[in-house]
Structures are given as structure tokens and as C-alpha cells.
Amino acid sequence: MTDKNRTPSPRPRRHPLRQTRPSPLIEARRREERRKKNACPTLEEVRAIPLPALTGAERTRLRGEAHHLEPLVIVGVNGVTDGVIEAIHEALCRHGLIKVRMHEPEDKHALAEEIARRAHAVLLGLRGHTLILYRPRAE
Question: Is 88 exposed, middle or buried (0-12, 13-18, 19+ CB in 10 A)?
Fold first, then answer.
């Protein structure tokens, strides 16, 4: 087959020494820009936004959506610390609807209310030692 009969490639040929991938520095810069764009607002900024008043039907629907979820945060023996609240805040920013597991609390209802208040979330329900929290994601 001769070169006259061959159709030209729609893609231009690259020089063999030309980089086909961006440099690691450019990739790191792009990753940092994506991370900043998807960054979660601080807990103080979120507290300025009022929580929605949910109807009974909305609460039931959200509890149904949370049924298949696994607990993302576990409150250990030390109880509710600032680190636990920060972890719950990050999980709520990413997912909006999460489960939190408590390790043998003395008063689970009071502890669930405290967690919801400090994390600025709506307490949807408490099943055993697992509570369901909801916060609409800030878009």
C-alpha cells in the first residue's frame, strides 16, 4: 500500500520527546484547586444557616434512605469531643445524611441531642446506639 492511498490520521502526530502527560506540579495544582472548590465550610459558617423544619413524611423518607448506610463516625469511650464533632461535620458536608454509632452511653437520648446540637444537624432518629443525622448540603 502506498502513502498516496492512505487517509491521514485525524490526530496530529506527536514528537517522540514531547510529554504526553502533564507534569506532577501541574497535576498537584489541579488537585489543590479541586479540593478548594469542594471544600467544606467551617462549622461556624454552617451554624449561621438555619436548619430546615422537616415534616413527618420527610423525616420518614430520610430515615428510609439512611437504612442501608453504615455508621461513618463512632463516638468512643471518651464521649463527645471536639474531634468527634469535627468528624461529624466533615461527614455531613460530604454526605448530608449519616449514621453515628455511640459506644455504650449512659443517657443515649441526651447524648444524641447534644451531638445534633453541637454538629448543627437535624436528629432524625435513634435506633439502639445509632443515631441518624441530616444537614442539607450547602451548594
Answer: buried
| pLDDT tens digits along 32-45 | 887 777 778 888 88
CA distances from 125 to 29, 54, 108 (A): 42, 13, 12
Can you list the domains of the chain with their CATH numbers? Answer: 43-134 (3.30.110.60)
3-class SS of residue 102: strand
Please give the grid coordinates belonging to residue 127: 435506633
Give the C-alpha distances (Å, rounded to integers) separating 133 from 26, 34, 71.
Answer: 38, 27, 11
**SS3 assignment, position 133:** strand
* Cβ-based neighbours of 63, under 8 Å, separated by 6 or more: 124, 125, 132
pTM comes to: 0.72
